[in-house]
Design a protein that fits this description.
Distance between the termini: 47 Å
Order of helices and strands: HEEEEHEEEEEHEHEHHHHHEHEHEEEHH
Family: Belongs to the peptidase S10 family.
Structural class: alpha/beta
Helix content: 25-40%
Number of domains: 2
GO molecular function, one term: serine-type carboxypeptidase activity
Radius of gyration: 22 Å
Protein name: Serine carboxypeptidase-like 7 isoform X4
CATH architecture of the largest domain: 3-Layer(aba) Sandwich
Number of strands: 16
Keywords: Signal
InterPro entries: AB_hydrolase_fold, Peptidase_S10
CATH superfamily of the largest domain: Alpha/Beta hydrolase fold, catalytic domain
Shape: globular
CATH topology of the largest domain: Rossmann fold
Length: 442
């Protein structure tokens, strides 16, 4: 027996003894009556000694769960809970904001007609450890990084699929947004490597989906300035001074190159112009107090709901594992050890795989111009020129497509959306995914 087959057998035996602890949820606080879709929550143990307990929400496709694709959804940060993606972006429940105030302790839900679960079964995963309701059984387990957390996700998928073998053969798509622009490609690579090595279960990996993806810090900083100038948030003189005259196109942080006095002053002037903006959506107001409505106001509803004792009981959260639920836990013991995910995308150009990459065109945090730039650097032929795409007869954004007969990338902007796009334009993003799944032009 080969080494890979022995490892697979050991993994299967271990998985049987450490199967996912799961519960079917019939109802949740804030939604009247029983849920009209299948919701399951649970923990899966990963790590060298099973010290990490990753929490997930699983929703079956509302169309044809026996045949529809399986998606894994990861929310960015790192440290932002997948519950944020479920409720605020692509899941079947949204807050009924017309029926409550922005600080309600008992927010109510309404159904989202543009949920991605209309066409796919989706696992929403709290990763890395310490995110959402995921936890570690010992302090050392909380120390993680880009590579380790990605391997935990791959371990999670293997164990989850062993426990849900009816989904093993479904087309699999790895998806996520924001910082997961780094993590998703690593996970895709892990799956590809595992499939080639003969690890069980083999996964029917078909592609990946990235929204407003973080790829490389320096490039994303450059594109932020470029975007700001393009949409008239920076003057020509200020932009030219930073890019060609005083900063030599390096776009260093203000505190980094203190010897370059002229560049420092230019960057300070740029900050003076851009800092007052809500960079996740430049047309929306920035939060200045709890009394003023802003996009983040809805985050308070999510935190109030998730921290409610009845909610945690309904979701079967293990008692004592979390002192409080935080939408984005920015205190993780996390090491950023992958500078760029670009090399992974380059690897995929040699594989038979599809990618959908989209950006809200009002997002200055990770602008579409930088994302489109690195996609073009993959040197894959343009097979569809830049053009508008439509929803209900109206322009929903712009799209272009690249292909080398193996690797196929569809890039799309979502008009009027920010960071992240489905938070602002649910119908448009759902229509985009529906067409892409069906291999139809946007």
């Amino acid at each position: 027996m080969s080494t890979s087959n022995i490892l697979s057998l050991l993994f299967i035996l271990t998985s049987i003894s450490h199967a996912a602890s799961s519960n079917v949820i019939k109802s949740v606080p804030g939604f009247p009556g029983n849920l009209p879709f299948y919701l399951e929550t649970g923990y899966v143990r990963v790590g060298e000694n099973d010290e990490v307990q990753l929490f997930y929400y699983f929703i079956k496709s509302e169309r044809d769960p026996e045949k529809d694709p399986l998606m894994l959804w990861l929310t960015g940060g790192p440290g932002c809970s997948a519950l944020s993606g479920l409720v605020l972006e692509i899941g079947p429940l949204n807050f009924n904001t017309s029926a409550c105030n922005w600080h309600s302790k008992s927010p109510t839900f309404q159904l989202n007609p543009s949920s991605w679960t209309k066409v796919a079964s989706i696992i929403f995963l709290d990763s890395p450890v310490g995110t959402g309701f995921s936890y570690a059984t010992n302090p050392e387990g909380y120390y993680t990084d880009d590579i380790t957390s990605s391997r935990h996700i791959y371990q999670f998928l293997r164990k989850w699929l062993m426990d849900h073998d009816g989904f093993k053969d479904h087309p699999l798509f790895i998806s996520g947004d924001s910082y997961c622009g780094k993590i998703v490609p690593i996970v895709v690579q892990e799956i590809s490597n595992g499939n080639r090595a003969g690890f069980e279960p083999a996964m029917n990996l078909q592609g990946y989906v990235l929204g407003n993806p973080y790829t490389r810090k320096e490039d994303d900083n450059k594109s932020k300035f470029y975007y700001a100038h393009r949409v008239s948030l920076l003057s020509d003189d200020l932009y030219e001074s930073a890019t060609r005259i005083n900063c030599n196109g390096t776009y260093v942080d203000v505190d980094v190159d203190k010897d370059n006095v002229k560049c420092t002053r230019i960057l300070q002037a740029i900050s003076y112009n851009l800092d007052p903006l809500f960079d996740a959506h430049v047309l929306k107001p920035k939060c200045i107090s709890h009394q003023t409505w802003c996009q983040e106001s809805i985050y308070y509803l999510l935190e109030n709901w998730a921290n409610d004792i009845q909610t945690q009981a309904a979701l079967h959260i293990q008692k004592g594992t979390k002192s409080s639920w935080i939408r984005c836990n920015m205190t993780l013991a996390y090491a950023y050890n992958v500078e760029s995910s670009f090399g992974y995308h380059q690897n995929f150009t040699q594989d038979f795989i599809r990618a959908l990459i989209y950006s809200g065109d009002q997002d200055m945090k990770i602008s579409y111009v930088g994302t489109l730039e690195w996609i073009k650097m993959l040197n894959v032929s343009t097979v569809e020129d830049w053009r508008p795409w439509f929803v209900n007869g109206q322009v929903a954004g712009y799209t272009t497509k690249f292909s080398n007969d193996r690797y196929h990338v569809t890039f799309a902007t979502v008009k009027g959306a920010g960071h992240t796009a489905p938070e602002y334009k649910r119908l448009e993003c759902f229509t985009m995914l529906l067409k892409w799944f069906a291999m139809h032009p946007l």
